[in-house]
Amino acid sequence: MAALLSGFFPLLVLLSFSSHFPESFSAEETVKTFIFRVDSQLKPSIFPTHYHWYTSEFADPTRILHTYDTVFHGFSATLTETHAAFLANHPSVLAVFEDRRRELHTTRSPQFLGLRNQHGLWSDSDYGSDVIIGVFDTGVWPERRSFSDTNLGPVPARWKGVCQTGARFVAKNCNRKLIGARFFSKGHEAAAGPGGPIAGINQTVEFMSPRDADGHGTHTASTAAGRHAFRASMGGYAAGIAKGVAPKARLAVYKVCWKNSGCFDSDILAAFDAAVNDGVDVISISVGGGDGISSPYYLDPIAIGAYGAVSRGVFVSSSAGNDGPNIMSVTNLAPWLVTVGAGTIDRNFPADVVLGDGRRLNGVSLYTGVQLKGKMYPVVYPGKSGELPASLCMENSLDPNVVKGKIVICDRGSNPRVAKGMVVKEAGGVGMILANGASNGEGLVGDAHLLPACALGSDEGDAVKKYVSSSPNPTATIDVKGTVIGIKPAPVVASFSARGPNGLNPEILKPDLIAPGVNILAAWTDAVGPTGLDSDPRKTEFNILSGTSMACPHVSGAAALLKSAHPDWSPAAIRSAMMTTASITDNTNQPMIDEATGKPTTPYDFGAGHLNLDRAMDPGLIYDITNSDYETFLCAIGYNPKLVQVVTRSPVVCPMKRPLPENLNYPSIAALFSTASRSPSSKTFTRTVTNVGQANAVYIAKIEAPRGVTVTVKPMKLVFTPVVKKISFFVTITADSKHLVLDDAGAVFGSLTWTDENNKHVVRSPIVVTQLDPL
After folding, report:
1. Helix (H) or strand (E) holding 178
2. Which residue intervals define the domain Subtilisin-like protease fibronectin type-III in the entry (predicted)?
3. Which of 85-89, 282-286, 675-679 has the lowest mean pLDDT?
4. Nearest 5 degrees, angle CA 285-CA 291-CA 293?
5. Is residue 303 within a helix (H) or strand (E), and if so which, with residue range?
6. Active-site annotation holder among 549, 564, 576, 751
7. Which residues contact 473 (CB under 8 A, 6 or more apart)?
8. What is the structure's pLDDT at 288?
9. What's the rounded mean pLDDT across residues 629-640?
10. pLDDT tens digit string along 311-347?
């Protein structure tokens, strides 16, 4: 049946349809949740609402979970596959897709973005006080000081949202800072039904309300818009003044993800619908596919919901995913989404493993308990004999007779890093050395372990294992050093940050940019300890986390500041300002490096660069994109008008001559050449820039051509006046396969930069040239 459905759902079948659904289907069939995209314009006038239509002609009211009428037209329902396949033939149904589970992409960072108290974007935007950020995550712990409304003005009059009550969440939990809160559980609960893929919501550890039992949502919300002017730390680590990127922005929380069980598309789509109706200006969604598969946009509810939001002027920031440094691991690929990777900041939490032979191996730790104080302990590596569960320190895999009173080496992978420490502790170990494998390279993140622990990179991990295997009585201790500021180089692209190229449409560079996402301090729930483990009894107001989940809300907060300073800018204009002013060098003025390899990075790693808000406020020129441009792009990638309508809601007429997808007015340029094409071969791209700086301005093009590639720009000079505010130009890229030396990702890189006469504005766009084998 699954194979049958795969033929139904991507295709839009328009057949004659009887409104009388067959009386019965096999009782043995599994019921699943399906999302139906319906052409709302075909609703018969006899039905007063779309809900009446859906429940009369498509499914019983008890089967309907959500109806969608803003970013998406249609409904979700729990049905058998036979019923869903039958409805796919309805002439009003444009597409059907099965509900899918998503995963979360788990106080110096504002300064590291170039924000200062006395001048610049913070002051020019009044810290974002008139902008509303909607956070799609695990909810919020509203009592945290980060969500105080002290000295905030009234809630913006345009706000139409609600403060939904539930378990341990009442109306007064909202205020002038946290102005709205909702929770969405119907898709989750349906998936937890008989034979469903997940367990139900455990209300002994979870709240049926917007209250956050996980911590992730509280962390991301306070990163984007937490209040400032009070001291914060996590057990003494990262001490400083707590502040979000947009401290006065208003927050609306949409709980779509649930503790230990992820997030479902049907609920996420309902949150998009609600958030746009409520009146948010920015949506922050640190969620992505948990299976590493990127669906076409017309089968991706996050892409569809985001388009509905962006087409109404709402900026949508999304996390790139944590499957780096693997090539083509980036997710959330739609060109209307801003896709954010992660970098380090200039703060670290160093710790050393001191071996019995005197060597010090450098790592990181956030352990806050009783230290080992230099005492040497025996070291054991359970994986020495090749037992995989033991080497990974999986639950019940360690023999207490072997590890008691010893420091245990655990390999990274399979189970959570903090859970490995708990396994060691329960088996009687006194400490843990967490060793990266080759896939993680040298990338390290700190964790608030429950016993003395230190994370080591791949090389250092191999060194300690070699020491244990070659020494008759190996010993070690762990020396935790606390917080160190002023780390160089920084930023460094995080090893886990997902990488390009774009697996759906390589003509669009993804990720778009990177932002701080390693060891980020932000508010935390009171429902669980800093490890997130149910067995962790500790309580903390703040926690330190890493992931592109942490990078995404930095960009969401930045968008709020830019929206407040430039209320007439579109989402595409805001993204352009961020991308074209992003930094590509670190704090030593050298090219950014890759944490995983120590080698220089490329736009496949960092997109346009690292977010730099000091410059983004005044970018000089922007690359704007209209709804019509996105529709043309969808036609260009081969979608027929019905498929385009699945995404855009309105009927579209595609041009007779198929346009080129690379001509979308994106702030980056990606040229794809076939390995079978004649050499040399050329492609010409069109771009249009809008002057948002001084009315009279002249910009000159500076070209940094990729190796083996010729790049020409016409015209080379752009002259703007009070009358001439937009100018188009052409970029011709010529590649000779005989002289093209591609990197490991199969590409070469360059840039096009527009600078004005006094170099006040530097508007940079990365250029990517790659070769693809013909299909």
Report:
1. strand 178-183
2. 663-769
3. 675-679
4. 85
5. helix 301-310
6. 549
7. 356, 378
8. 85
9. 97
10. 999 999 999 999 989 999 999 999 999 999 999 999 8
Biggest CA–CA distance in the chain, Å, is 85
d(CA 216, CA 209) in angstroms, rounded, equals 15
Burial of 765 (0-12, 13-18, 19+ CB in 10 A): buried
CA–CA distance, 118 with 473 (Å, rounded to integer): 58
Length of the chain: 775
DSSP class per residue in 581-638: T-B-B-TTSSB-BBTTTSSBP-HHHHTT-B--HHHHTS-SEE----HHHHHHHHHHTT
Distance CA 328, CA 507 (A): 13
Q: Which two tokens stand for residue 680?
A: 């040399």
In the predicted structure, residue 531 carries a pLDDT above the cut 90: no
CA torsion, ordered 513, 510, 187, 55, to nearest 10 deg? 120
Cα separations in angstroms, 737 against 682, 708, 740, 755, 775: 11, 8, 5, 31, 18
Q: Mean pLDDT over residues 567-595, rounded?
A: 97
Q: Is 549 a catalytic residue?
A: yes
- Is residue 137 part of the annotated active site? The answer reads yes
pLDDT band at 775 (very low <50, low <70, confident <90, very high): very low
Omega into 571 within 30° of 0, i.e. cis?
A: no
564: nearest Cα among 332, 245, 311, 264? 245
- The Cβ of residue 131 has, within 10 Å, a number of other Cβ atoms equal to 27
- State the DSSP code for 667: S
Q: The tokens of 269 are what?
A: 């789509």
Q: Of the listed 66, 73, 216, 228, which one is catalytic?
A: 216
In the DSSP assignment, the letter for residue 328 is T
What is the per-residue pLDDT for 678? Answer: 66
Mean pLDDT of the chain: 89
- Point out the catalytic residue in the list 39, 99, 130, 137: 137
pLDDT of residue 114: 47
CA distances from 337 to 216, 217, 314, 374, 537 (A): 21, 20, 10, 50, 39
> Has 414 been annotated as catalytic?
no
What's the rounded Cα separation, in Å, for the pair 462 and 589?
32
